[in-house]
Amino acid sequence: MPTATTAGKTAAPKPAPAPDGDFYQLVDLLTPDEKALVKKVRTYMETKVQPVINKYWSDDAFPFELLPSFKELGLGGLGFEGYGCAGGSQKLFGFVAMELARTDASFCTFFGVHSGLAMGSIYLDGSEEQKQKWLPAMARWEKIGCFGLTEPLVGSGTSGGLTTTAKREGDTWVLNGQKRWIGNAPWCDISIIWARDLADNQVKGFIVENKSTPGFSVEKIEHKIALKVVQNGQITLKDVRVPEANRLQGGNSFRDTARVLRMTRYMVGWASTGIQMGAYEATLKYAQERLQFGKPIASFQLIQDLLAKMLGNLTACQCLMLRLAQLDDEGKLGDHHAALAKAFCTSKSRETVSWGREVLGGNGIVADYNVARFFADAEALYSYEGTYQMQNLIVGKAITGHGAFL
Predict the structure, then answer these.
(1) Rounded to whole angstroms, how far apart are CA atoms 164 and 181?
(2) How wide is the angle at C-alpha 148 spanned by C-alphas 144 and 153, nearest 5°?
(3) How many CB atoms are closer than 10 A to CB 23?
(4) What region holds the Acyl-CoA oxidase/dehydrogenase middle domain (predicted)?
(5) pLDDT tens by residue, 80-113
(6) Which CATH number is correct for 26-139, 2.40.110.10, 1.10.540.10, 1.10.3720.10, 2.40.30.10?
């Protein structure tokens, strides 16, 4: 039987496979309802966020006009049960975070700061009365929160060296100090502020109502090169008076703060995995379409080698994060588990996005092609929620039995 070629016709080129960052089909481990939510989030990010995000990233601005439609996704308090929260497994929480970061890490960070750090502080360390008062409105995104732990001169040393202080005067606490790199701070409604109690030298948490508290001010941090859509602020507290009713009743030492950080550190693992997913898919699509020497560069050996290495990093991180989520759902997640995931995934993310930037050549430094944004944003995730070295020391203590901290 004659082929198309022998019949004097040219065979139609075989269509290129669509870029798919879920190489091991991990999404099939979700329930049908979970899959539907993840698909809903992906559709939203692709249709609403992707068309505008590069401009906002370049302008160092946040797309506030998207908040009403984003709220309709019902993601507030995902992974938390009760109090109007979205509920669901930690596996679902992770897949949603990965989907958000697949399009934009800044949007994922905005979500994580509010729904993970701020709501998580109240959920894990708040009294029943505080949970009832704050969490339903936060779950509906009527009150947006931030998380104030890092300071201008204190990053890795927050466990024992906070300079922000709290002094009790009757039923009121007086806060003084500064917080820096606080996502959502320039515009949110409430801030979770961690301060050192002058009476017992222990770290305690406070709910500060930004817009109605004298002595509380925020200055937006300008000229960032990463996570430019997230609005980070430097908070100054000058004799800020907070009622005892707004002190997190379960937040009485850094051990309580660490419970929140354990959860959010592995969220950063999901976010850095999502960045790799977005960078890989954007890079593959570019390689399939970009022609050199009359052929798509995706047909070249060196390009395929880089793409395979990108996919290997991405898939390894996805599998690691999936197991971590299972441990959390089983109540077995430890600080050392979260620390290893945060360190490994953010490190691999830097490697993955650098290979993507390499494939794109000169276009790899232009925001329009998306990879440049992933390339820059990966740097921020590598540092925040605890540096790579600090995470490794947490792991090192767990596996050797010896603490190597100063």
Answers:
(1) 15
(2) 150
(3) 12
(4) 146-240
(5) 999 999 999 999 999 999 999 999 999 999 999 9
(6) 1.10.540.10
